[in-house]
Specification:
44% helix; alpha/beta; 501 residues; 22 helices; single chain
Length: 501
C-alpha cells in the first residue's frame, strides 16, 4: 500500500463521476449520489465525504449547508473569529465530533472535562438520555458570549444529530485512507480489484452479478466458468492469449497507445470466473477438479467425473452452470451427459453401454440467460434488459442516457432491482437501485406511492419506472410516478430473442 501514489488525479476523476461500485465506504447508493455533488479532489475531501453521509450530519442539517458553501466559497461566513479557527477546514459547518467539543469550549465556556462529558453523552443519549443539562449550559454560555439564540439552538440540534452516528475526524481519516487505496485499485487495476471482490463474497452492497457487469463496463473481459481452465477462486489470465469457451485461443486486442486510459482493456487481463461461482458445488469438489486437471486435460464429461471423483449431483451442478460447455458443446448436451456419468464404485463400473447420443439443439438465448442466473446468479452472455429492449420500446431510456436529459423531464427507465433501502432518516421513502446493461439508475419512491404499488416496490425483480428526472450537479435521480413489474416478460420471450443479443 505504501507504493500507491498519493493524490492521483485519475482516481479522483473516477470518484467525481460516482463510479464507486465496490469501493470501501463510498459504494452505497447515498455515497455514490453524493460523490458527483461534493466532487472530491484531495484526500481531505474524502475524509469529509466519509463523515458527512451519516445519520448524524443528515439529521443535524449539515449536508446541504456544506455543499452550498463548497459551491460558493464567497458565501462562507463564521459567527466569530474563535469559531472560524474551529470550523474553517469544514467551511463553517461542524461535521466532526472534535469540532463540537471545541465549539463547546470556545463558544460556550465549557471546560475540557465538560466537553469530554458532552462527547460521551452524544454517543449514549439515544439509549440513556442525558443531553438536556448540556443544552441549557450550551445555549446560556453562547448567549453570554454574544452568539444569537438561533445559532446556539442550531448547534444543539446538530449535537443531537451526532447521537445518531457522528464521526470523529481521526476515524473518518482512517476510513478515507482505505477508501482512497481501494479507489486507486479500482481505477488502475479494475480486473484485479473485481477479482478480489468476487473471491471475498459475500460482502459489501453488491452481488457478483453487479460487480461483473460493472467491471465489463470498464472494458475488462470476463471469461466463463469452465472446468478445463477455472480454479476454485476467480483468477486473472496471466498471458496475452486466453482460452475461449470452445477451446480456441484468441489474442487480446490492443488499442492505440495514444488513447489508452488507466483502466484500458490493453492493461487489464481477463478475469476467469472460478468454480466457487457454481451454486451447489462444494469447495472440496472444486479443489478435486483442480488436482485432477493438473496431470492432463479432461477428455469428456465422463473422464472428468471419474478422475475428479465427482458424483452425479456435482456433475449436474457444473452442467447447469454452463461449466461443461467446453467438453459437451452446450448446456443441453452437458445435462444429458451428466445423467449418464459414473464414478468408481458404481455397480455398472467397467460395463460398456453403447447408446447413441440424442441430437439436442442449442438452447434459446433467453433460456440460457435464465439458466445462468439460476445456477450462477449472473450471465456473461447478455443482460436481461438487453433482451427486453425490443418489447419495452424506445421510450424506456438507458442509464447511460440520463446524464444528457434535461432536469425535470418525464421519462421511463427500467432495470433489475439490485437494492431496496428504507433509511430510518427518510420518513418512509424507499430508494431503489435499478441496473440495466449500461449502468445504475437511482429511483426515489415516496411513501404514498409505496402504499399504492407495494408489490412492485417490494417484490419485482425487473421494474419499469415512469417519473420525473432530477439531473443536477452530476447526479441523476428518477422520482417515481408509476411502477410496473416486468419480471414476467422474460418468460414470454420467444426464440427470436437470439437476434437481440
Amino acid at each position: 500500500l505504501e507504493t500507491i501514489p498519493r493524490e492521483d488525479p485519475a482516481t479522483y476523476d473516477m470518484l467525481c463521476a460516482g463510479d464507486a461500485v465496490g469501493v470501501f465506504q463510498v459504494e452505497s447508493r447515498a455515497q455514490m449520489a453524493m460523490l458527483p455533488r461534493l466532487k472530491p479532489r484531495c484526500f481531505y475531501d474524502l475524509v469529509i465525504e466519509v463523515a458527512i453521509v451519516r445519520p448524524g450530519p443528515i439529521q443535524g442539517d449539515m449536508v446541504h449547508p456544506y455543499l452550498e458553501r463548497r459551491q460558493h466559497p464567497d458565501r462562507v461566513t463564521y459567527p466569530g473569529p474563535e469559531l472560524e479557527r474551529v470550523l474553517k477546514r469544514t467551511l463553517g459547518v461542524p461535521i466532526f465530533q472534535e469540532q463540537v467539543m471545541q465549539i463547546a469550549i470556545v463558544a460556550a465556556g465549557f471546560t475540557p472535562g465538560e466537553a469530554d462529558q458532552l462527547r460521551r453523552a452524544m454517543a449514549a443519549w439515544k439509549r440513556r438520555g442525558g443531553l438536556e443539562p448540556f443544552r441549557d449550559k450550551l445555549v446560556a454560555g453562547m448567549r453570554e458570549r454574544g452568539y444569537a439564540r438561533e445559532f446556539a439552538e442550531r448547534i444543539y440540534r446538530q449535537i443531537c444529530g451526532f447521537g445518531d452516528y457522528g464521526f470523529p475526524e481521526s476515524h473518518a481519516a482512517s476510513f478515507a485512507l482505505l477508501t482512497y487505496f481501494s479507489a486507486w485499485m479500482k481505477c488502475h487495476h479494475p480486473a484485479a480489484f473485481a477479482c478480489g471482490l468476487l473471491n471475498s463474497q459475500p460482502m459489501g452492497f453488491y452481488a457478483p452479478a453487479q460487480i461483473i457487469n460493472d467491471v465489463k463496463r470498464h472494458r475488462v473481459r470476463v471469461l466463463p466458468v469452465d472446468v478445463r481452465f477455472s480454479q476454485w477462486d476467480c483468477t486473472l489470465e496471466s498471458c496475452r492469449f486466453v482460452a475461449s469457451s470452445f477451446g480456441r485461443f484468441e489474442k487480446t486486442k490492443r488499442r492505440d497507445k495514444s488513447t489508452k486510459r488507466p483502466n484500458d482493456e490493453a492493461t487489464s487481463p481477463p478475469i476467469r470466473l472460478g468454480l466457487r461461482m457454481v451454486k451447489g458445488l462444494k469447495e472440496s469438489a472444486g479443489r478435486g477438479i483442480e488436482t485432477a486437471r493438473a496431470g492432463a486435460g479432461f477428455r469428456d464429461v465422463q473422464d472428468l467425473a471419474e478422475r475428479a471423483g465427482l458424483d452425479r449431483g456435482q456433475v449436474r451442478a457444473l452442467a447447469e452452470a454452463g461449466a461443461l460447455k467446453g467438453l459437451a458443446g452446450h448446456r443441453r448436451r452437458a445435462r444429458w451427459q451428466a445423467l449418464a456419468t459414473r464414478r468408481q464404485g458404481d455397480l455398472l463400473e467397467g460395463t460398456v453401454i453403447r447408446e447413441e447420443s440424442p441430437r439436442l439443439g442449442l438452447p434459446e438465448k433467453h433460456q440460457d440467460l435464465l439458466d445462468d442466473y439460476a445456477s450462477l446468479g449472473l450471465s456473461l452472455d447478455s443482460h436481461p434488459l438487453k433482451l427486453l429492449r425490443p418489447v419495452l420500446g424506445r421510450q424506456v431510456r438507458r442509464a447511460e442516457e440520463l446524464k444528457g436529459i434535461d432536469d425535470g423531464r418525464l421519462i421511463q427507465a427500467a432495470g433489475v432491482v439490485t437494492h431496496r433501502q428504507r433509511p430510518g432518516t427518510a420518513s418512509g421513502v424507499i430508494f431503489l437501485s435499478l441496473e440495466d446493461e449500461t449502468g445504475i439508475i437511482n429511483v426515489i419512491v415516496w411513501p404514498k406511492l409505496v402504499q399504492r404499488y407495494p408489490g412492485e416496490v417490494l417484490q419485482s425483480r425487473i421494474l419499469r419506472v415512469a417519473g420525473k428526472l432530477q439531473n443536477a450537479q452530476g447526479s441523476q435521480h428518477l422520482i417515481a410516478h408509476r411502477l410496473y413489474d416486468e419480471t414476467s416478460r422474460l418468460n414470454g420471450l420467444s426464440a427470436d430473442s437470439r437476434d437481440f443479443c
